[in-house]
Amino acid sequence: MQDTEHNHEIFEEKLKLCREVLGQDSVSALMTTTCYSLGRFKEIVDEYVRLGFNSIFLRSLNPYGFAKRDKQKIAYPLADFIENYKEALDYIIDINLKGTVFVEGYAELLLSRVLTPFATGFVDLQSPAGVGISGVIYDYNGNVYVSDEARMMATANNHYFKMGNVNENTYQEMFNGEFLHHVISNACTECLPICAECAYQPFCGADPVRNFSEQGDMVGHRPTNESCKKNKAVLQHLLELIKKNDPKINNVFWSWITKQSIQ
Ligand code: SF4
C-alpha cells in the first residue's frame, strides 16, 4: 500500500513537470480498467478531476501486449465493465451539471457519430477501419505496422500486420500492395457478417487487428466478439439517454460534441 502511495506521489510530480514543459492541456492520462478498478470508477473520476484533467476515456482491457499476457490476473467479465461504465457516465453527467467541464471520451466519440454527420477521426470506429490508411506506425527499426496494436502484436512475435520495412520496401509496395488491399477489404462494416444487418452499423466500426488478436482472423465472429458486445451495450445506453430527451442531459452531450460550455 505504501509503495502504491509513493508511486502515485512520483506520478503527480512527473505530471506537474510534463505540464510545465508541454503546457497544462497537452498532457492526458489513458485509463485502462483492470479487475482492481471495478467498483471504483467514481473514485477514479474524482482523482482525474482533482488532478486537473478535463476528460477521461473509460477503456476496457484490450487483447494486446501485457494485458493479454496477464489476462488471468487482471481480466473480468465484460458485463461488469458495462455496469461500471453506465454508473460512471451518470456520475460524469452529474459532475458537468454541477459546473465542472469533464468529458467521457468514448461517449463523446459515439455521440458525435450518432448526432452529427461529421467524422471523428477515431480509427477504431470507422468503416473501412483506419488501419494502414488513416494512420500507421513506424517502429524504431524501420518496420511499418498498420496500427500501434499491430506493433504490440509484433512484440509478441506475431508480425501478421507488418506492411514492410522502410529500408527494404517502397512506399508503393507498402501502401498500395496486395496486403493492405486485403486488410481493408476485410474492414468494412457494411459487408462484414452480422455488422451488415446491424442497427448500430452507421455508428460503429471494423477492427481487423483486434478481431485477429481476439478471434484468430480479421473478420471475427460477432456473436462472441467482446468489442462488438461493448459497442452495442454502450450505444444502446447512449440511445436510451438521448431518447429521454432530458434538456439537461442533452446540454451536457452537446457541450462535449461542440467543445463548448453548457448553455
Ligand atoms: S455493434 Fe457489433 S454487429 Fe453492430 S456494427 Fe458494431 S461490431 Fe458490427
Write a brief caption for the model.
Helix content is about 50%, strand content about 5%. It is mostly helical. The strands form two sheets. It has a three-stranded antiparallel beta sheet.
Please explain how this structure is put together.
β3 and β4 (143-145) form a beta hairpin. The termini are far apart. The protein has helices spanning 2-22, 41-50, 65-69, 71-74, 78-97, 105-115, 148-155, 171-175, 178-185, 208-215, 226-244, 247-258, and strands at residues 55-56, 103-104, 137-138, 143-145, 162-165. With 263 residues, the protein is mainly alpha-helical. The model has no long low-confidence stretch (mean pLDDT 93). The radius of gyration is 20 Å and the shape is globular. The protein has a three-stranded antiparallel beta sheet. The longest helix is centred in the first third of the chain and has 21 residues, at 2-22. Bound molecules: iron/sulfur cluster. Iron/sulfur cluster (SF4) binds next to α11.
Strand content: under 5%
Principal-axes geometry comes out as globular
Helix residue percentage: 40-55%
Gyration radius, to the nearest Å?
Answer: 20 Å
Q: Which small molecules are bound?
A: iron/sulfur cluster
Specify the oligomeric state. Answer: single chain
The biggest sheet amounts to: 3 strands, antiparallel
